[in-house]
Write a structure and sequence with these properties.
The complex is a heterodimer. Chain A is α+β, with helices and mostly antiparallel strands. Chain A is built from five helices and ten strands. In chain A, the strands form two sheets. Chain A has a six-stranded antiparallel beta sheet with strand order 6-7-3-2-1-10. In chain A, strands 5-4-8-9 form a four-stranded antiparallel beta sheet, with no helix packed on it. In chain A, a hairpin with a 2-residue loop joins strand 4 and strand 5 (182-184). The longest helix of chain A has 37 residues, at 75-111. Chain A is rod-shaped, with a radius of gyration of 36 Å. The model of chain A has no long low-confidence stretch (mean pLDDT 91). The relative contact order of chain B is 0.12. Chain B has a six-stranded antiparallel beta sheet with strand order 9-8-11-12-13-14, with no helix packed on it. In chain B, strands 1, 2, 3, 4 and 5 form a five-stranded antiparallel beta sheet that branches. Helices cover 17% and strands 43% of the residues of chain B. By secondary structure, chain B is α+β, with helices and mostly antiparallel strands. Classes of the chains: A alpha+beta, B alpha+beta. At the A-B interface, helix 5 of A face helix 1 and helix 2 of B. Chain A: InterPro entries: Perm_prefix_1 (IPR047928).
């Protein structure tokens, strides 16, 4: 079937639409609509030329349609729409990498687990389950474990809302151990993952079995005291 | 969907996406916002007062605040022309000022510190520096800085210092309004060791 050429008619309509950015969109929408009507008339048994003229008659006066479309596609709203649309696209692109990083780190943290210490036997453990919000970070002290080689281990996690107004760091905790005589000098190491959500383990070496208190520091002046005498579950009892 | 509905959706989505981008990327509208956000992220502050802001030669600036008689120093930089972010290359953050006069050397040969004693109006520093491996005979530079009403002092001792040289403050004096020395810390020119204003007696004799 030969499709009629609507070019002149469509150009006449578009000459009234001042917002040029919409011309393509209007052109193809009208053209498709006219072709659909044309096909409909021809399939109903109308002659091609008659169908073409009927479509044009149904559409109406090109100048009137053009004026109406110009009102609907006002350049003022059109330009605002276009600028905002481009800004939205740019922001979606700019958000892509940070959002991907957020999703990836969240996904990794779901499967992350604490390392099990295998070179020494467990003496006791304390299920601390302590949770405190320090600035915009929630610090969770999960568990304290004490081993035969005099290592004390603190298992902890931190959670910071990714959309809070702070700059996110993957800060680890500090641990100071005390016994009846006072502060114990202890060496140690550890690890901490993630800046939004992350787990961490801190090991303190040469800690005596009768240590009484662990003070966990996070940031500059934020301290969480944990009583090491309470809630001990001895490994040989469990 | 008509254009007006789309515009409403854009007006809702754009601020949300902008906020998301700024929060996830660490971008802020002002240098001071970066400063306070960094302090919060490091779990201290906010500084009660911003004491000084110093422009870097390349771009950005160093902001110094005072929090509970300690200093907070954070470098910030411009981003996208209108936003601010942390300057790359690490931050100093919290500076503990436990002594009566605490002074530190910063990038770019800057010396700054805090004097907690109100009578101290001027701080003198002797800085020793030199090449590693030749630290027995260091070069010496002296500088004197005025203490402001917040106890803060600042000076630039050298902009020519190379990264591969050591530099430290060997001796500090705090002087009152009459120029009298009322505080000493470090090894004095007479060879007497002071620790936070107290002369350390020779225990060998």
């Amino acid at each position: 079937m030969r499709v009629p050429d609507w070019e002149e008619y469509l150009k006449q309509i578009l000459s009234h639409v001042k917002f040029k950015y919409d011309h393509n969109h209007i052109y193809f929408e009208l053209k498709n609509h006219m072709e659909d009507r044309y096909d409909e008339f021809v399939s109903e048994g109308m002659e091609e030329e008659q169908a073409r003229e009927t479509v044009l008659a149904c559409m109406g006066d090109a100048d009137e349609i053009g004026e109406e479309l110009n009102k609907a596609h006002s350049p003022f709203l059109g330009w605002i729409w276009r600028v905002l649309k481009d800004a939205l696209i740019l922001l979606v692109i700019l958000n892509f990498l940070p959002a991907l990083s957020l999703i990836t780190s969240g996904f990794i943290s779901v499967f992350e687990s604490y390392d099990e210490k295998s070179d020494s036997l467990l003496v006791y453990s304390i299920d601390v389950g302590y949770r405190e919000k320090i600035y915009d970070t929630t610090v969770i002290i999960d568990k304290i474990l004490y081993y035969e080689d005099h290592t004390l281990e603190v298992r902890y996690a931190t959670w910071t809302n990714p959309f809070s107004d702070s700059i996110k760091w993957s800060s680890s905790i500090g641990v100071t151990i005390y016994d009846e005589q006072g502060k114990i000098q202890a060496n140690g190491n550890g690890w901490k993952s993630g800046s939004y959500y992350g787990r961490g383990q801190k090991y303190c070496e040469n800690i005596p079995l009768d240590a009484t208190k662990a003070v966990i520091s996070y940031g500059i002046e934020n301290e969480i005291p944990i009583d090491l005498k309470e809630g001990r579950v001895m490994a040989n009892e469990s | 969907m008509n254009r007006k509905k789309e515009l409403i959706i854009f007006v809702i989505l754009i601020p949300l996406l902008l906020l998301s981008f700024m929060r996830l990327g660490g971008y802020y509208f002002s240098a001071e916002d970066v400063f306070y956000a960094c302090e919060k992220g490091l779990h201290y502050g906010p500084s009660e007062k911003i004491l000084a802001e110093y422009e870097f030669e390349d771009s950005g600036k160093l902001i110094v605040g005072k929090w509970k008689e300690n200093l907070s120093a954070i470098s910030v930089d411009r981003a996208f022309g209108v936003l601010w972010k942390l300057k790359s290359g690490g931050i100093t953050g919290f500076i503990s000022c436990e002594k009566v006069v605490t002074a530190n050397i910063f990038r770019g040969g800057k010396v700054m510190g805090l004097a907690s004693q109100k009578e101290i109006r001027e701080v003198y520093c002797r800085i020793e520096y030199g090449d590693y491996g030749n630290d027995e005979n260091p070069s010496i530079q002296e500088m004197t800085m005025t203490v402001d009403q917040d106890g803060f002092f600042y000076g630039i001792w050298s902009t020519q210092i190379q990264d591969d040289t050591f530099q430290y403050i060997a001796y500090i004096e705090g002087r009152n309004a009459y120029g009298e020395v009322i505080y000493r810390d470090g090894m004095s020119p007479e060879g007497k060791p002071y620790l936070d204003g107290v002369l350390i007696e020779n225990t060998e004799n």
